[in-house]
Amino acid sequence: MATILTKTLSQVHPKLRTNGIGIGNNHRRISLGFLRPSNRNPLVRKYRRRRRYGGDHASFRSLDDDFGSSVAHSPLLEDIDEYMAEPLEDGGELSRTVSLPSRVSETPDIQTDVDWILQEHERRYSSVDNSDDEETQDELRQTSEDALEYDDFMRRVRRQLIADVGRRKKRPSFVSVSSRGSVPNIYEIVEGEEEDFKKETVTFKSEAKVLLSYSLPLIFTFLLEQIFPMVCSLTVGHLGKNELAAVSLASMTTNITLAVFEGISTSLDTLCPQAYGSGNYRSVGIHLQRCIAFSLIVYIPFGFIWFFSNYFLSFVVKEKELVYLASKFLRIAILGAPAYIMFENLKRFLQAQGIFDAGIYVLLLCAPFNVFMSYTLVWNSKIGLGYIGAPIAMVINFWLMFFLLLLYVIYIDGKRCWDGFTRKAFTHWKDLSHLAIPGIVMLEAEDLSYEILTLFSSYFGTTYLAAQSAVSTTAALMYMIPFAVGISSSTRIANFIGAGRPECARIASELGISSSIFVGLLNCSILIAGRHFIARIFSRDEEVILLISELLLLVGVVEIFDSLNAIAGSCLRGQGMQVIGSVINLTVYYLFAIPLGILLGWRFDMKLFGLWIGIGSGMCIIGLMEGYFVLFPNWNKILQKAEMLRETDEDGSEDETDFSDSDSEPNETTSLL
Questions:
Q1: Is residue 442 domain-shared with residue 548, that is, in the same domain?
Q2: Is residue 79 helix, strand or coil?
Q3: DSSP 35
Q4: In this predicted structure, what is the pLDDT of residue 314?
Q5: CB of 362 within 8 A of CB of 404?
Q6: Which of these, 16, 35, 311, 490, is most buried using a 10 Å CB contact count?
Q7: What is the per-residue DSSP string for 129-184?
Q8: Percentage of the chain with pLDDT > 90?
Q9: What are φ and ψ of residue 335, in 5° steps?
Q10: Residue 634: which domain range?
Q11: Within-domain flag for 67
C-alpha cells in the first residue's frame, strides 16, 4: 500500500505536492497526512470544537490549537468550515488538509524554539509509513512514544507560545505559513516587548540598580502604612486613659488577627512572580482571586470572634469598662478588615509585575485624609462621635485604600495580568494552604514575640512598660526598611525561578543577603545617633527618656540581625521555601530566644536589657540559618517545584477547548499552578 501511494504521489505536479510532515512550500497547504490521529500526538490530536460554536465536526478554527495560538477570523476564511479526511481501504486516513488563502505572506521571523517539533515528527513517522508490516509499524510507534513523551511536548510548546503572546501587545493578521519544518507566526508585533526574564542579561551591578528602584517606593509605602495606627492612638489618647488603654488593646487584637491574612498573602510572593516570570500572565490574576477568596472565607470565624470579643477579652482583662470599649472598637473594625485583606493581596499582585510605586500614590492621598477623618469624627463639635469615631475613620480609610488601588489597576497599569473572574479561584485551596500556613507562622512568630516582650515588661513597673512601648514601636517602624528590601528581592528571585533561570535567581539571592548588612548598619546608625531625639518624642519624663536612650543602644545592634532575618525570610518565600522559615522562626523564638530573655530579665535582674538580649540572640540565629538556606539551596528541587506549580493553570486553559475525548474537568489532585 505504501509503495502504491508513493508512486501515485510522485506523479503529482511538484507545485501541488505536500511534504510528509504537512507544510507545503509553494501551495501553502497545511497537511497533517500520514499520521494516525492520537490524543498523545500534539499535531494530530482528535480536537473537539469549542463548545460555544456547537456541532460535532472539526473546523478551521481548531487549527489555532495545533500551535497554541489564536487565528484571527477573516471573511476569507469563513467558507472553510471543515477539513475532510479521505478514507483508505483499511479505514485509515490519507490526508487532513486546509488550503489557506492566497493572500498569505511568507514570514521571515521564525519561532526556532519549537522548530524541532515538526522535524522530529518527519524523522520518526517517515520510517513508520514506509513500512508494509503492521507489526513493525506498531513497534516503531511504541519506540517513538517511549523516546519522547507528548505531555511534556505540549507543556513546553504551550508555555513557549503563551510567553510569546503574553509579553507583547499584538494585532491580528492573516495566518503566515513559513517554509518547511517551521511553526507559523500568527501575529505581527506592533509594539516593544515587555521585560523578558528568560533573555535578560543579569549582573550584580544591574541587579543592584533594579533592587534599589524596587525598594525605595516600597520603603515609603510601608512607612506610610505605619502612620495609621499611630494616628488612631494619638487621636483617642486625649479622651482619657481608659479610651487609650482600650484602643491599645483593640489595636493589639487587630494586629495579631490581620497578621494571619498578611501571612496568607505572602503566598503570592511565591506564586505571582513565578507565574509572571514564566510569561503565564493569566495565572497571576487567578492566584490573586484564589488568595482573596481563601482569605475572606478564613476571615469569617475571626469576624465572629471580633463581634463577641467582650466574652473572649474578659478572660484576659478583668476591667469591664476596658473590655466594653475594646469590643466596641472591634465590632466596627469588622467592616474594614475585608478591604484591608483585598488591598494587601492587590498590592502583591502589582509587585509581581514590577509595579512598586502604586502604593505610594494611594497612601499619599489616604494618609492626610485619615488624619482629617480621625480628627473630624472624634473631635468635631457638630459631627464628632467621640471614641467610636476612630474605628469608623479606620474602616473608611481601608476601603478608600482598596478602591484607589483598584482604580490604579483599571485605568493606569497592572491589568495585563487580569483575564476576568474564574471559578478556578475556588479550587486548589489545599495546595494554597501549603504556602499560606508557613507564611502565617513566620509573621506571627515574630509579631507575638514583640507582644510577649511588652507583656513581660509590665511586671517591671510603669517606667519600664513606657520605655518598652516606645522602643518596640520604633523597632517596628525601622523594620519596614529591611522588609521592603526583602519583598523586592523575593519578587526578583521568584521572577527568575518562573523563567527557569537559577543562575539569575542565585545572583538576586546573594545580592539580597548582602544588602541586609548595609540596611542593618543603616538602621543601627539611625537609632544610635538619634536615640535622644527619639526618646523625647515619646515621653517628657526624664527617667523614661534616659531608659529609652540606653535601651536604643542595644536595640540598634539588634537591628543588624533583624534586617538579616527580614530579608532572608523574604528570600525564602521567593524561593518557595516558606516551610523552612516557619520551622526556624517557631523553634528559635519560642524554644530559645524568649526563654533566654526571661532568664536574663528575671534571674540575672537585667530587666528590659535581658529581654532584648534574648530576642536579639534569637534574631541572629534565625538570620544566619535562613541566610544559609537562601545562599545554598537545591536549585533543581526549587525549579521542579515551580514547574509542578505551573502545570495546573496551564492544563486549566483547556477548559474552554477540550483536547481530549472525555468530558473530565480539572480535579483537585493536580498541582496548584
A1: yes
A2: coil
A3: S
A4: 87
A5: yes
A6: 490
A7: HT---HHHHHHHHHHHHHHS-HHHHHHHHHHHHHHHHHTS-EEEEEEE--STT-PP
A8: 48
A9: -70, -25
A10: 207-217+437-650+668-673
A11: yes
> In degrees rounded to 5, what are phi and psi of residue 671?
-75, 170
How far apart, in whole angstroms, are the C-alpha atoms of residue 129 and residue 1?
10
Residues 449 and 550 in one domain: yes
Tell me: do 40 and 109 sit in the same domain: yes
- 3-51 pLDDT, tens digit per residue, is 665 565 556 555 444 444 433 333 333 444 444 555 444 444 444 444 4
DSSP annotation of 62: G
Tell me the CB-side half-sphere exposure of residue 180, using CA atoms within 13 A. 14
Instruction: Assess whether pLDDT exceeds 50 at residue 53.
Output: no
Instruction: Give the pLDDT score at 664.
Output: 38
| Residue 478: HSE in the Cβ half-sphere, 13 Å Cα cutoff | 29
Handedness of CA 96, 98, 99, 103 (dihedral sign): negative
CB 349 within 8 A of CB 288: yes
Q: Could you give the 3-state DSSP secondary structure of residue 653?
A: coil
Separation between Cα atoms, residue 468 and residue 209, nearest integer Å:
37
Report how far residue 488's alpha carbon sits from residue 503's, in angstroms, rounded to the nearest whole number: 18
| Whole-number Å distance between alpha carbons of 140 and 131 | 10
Listed residue (555, 619, 550, 566) closest to 589, CA to CA: 619
Tally of structural domains, the chain: 3
d(CA 104, CA 522): 62
Which residue, chain included where needed, has cell 515551580?
642
How far is 489 from 572, CA to CA, in rounded Å?
A: 10
Q: What is the number of alpha carbons within 13 Å of residue 5 lying toward its C-beta?
A: 15
- Going by their DSSP bridges, the two strands 29-31 and 185-189 should be labelled as unpaired
- Asked if residue 202 is part of any domain, the answer here is no
Same domain (yes/no): 422, 441: no
Query: Do the strands 29-31 and 85-87 form a parallel or antiparallel pair, or are they unpaired?
Result: unpaired
Three-state SS sequence of 418-438: CCCCCHHHHCCHHHHHHHHHH
Residues 6+ apart with CB under 8 A from 171: 187, 188, 190
Helix (H, G, I), strand (E, B), or coil: what is residue 544?
A: helix
116 within domain boundaries: yes
Residues 162, 267 within the same domain: no
Per the CB < 8 A criterion, the answer to whether 288 and 273 are in contact is no
The predicted-structure confidence for 477-530, as pLDDT tens digits, reads as follows 999 999 999 999 999 999 999 999 999 999 999 999 999 999 999 999 999 999
The secondary structure of 276-308 as a DSSP string is HHTT-HHHHHHHHHHHHHHHHHHHHHHHHHHHT
| 3-state secondary structure at position 523 | helix
Do both 212 and 298 map to the same domain? no
Q: Any idea which residue has 476569507 for its cell? A: 76
Query: CA 539 → CA 468, 526, 544, distances in Å?
Result: 12, 19, 7
Phi, psi (deg, nearest 5) at residue 28: 55, 55
Please choose, from the candidates 185, 171, 163, 194, the residue with its C-alpha nearest in 3D space to the C-alpha of residue 67: 185
Q: What is the pTM of this model?
A: 0.69
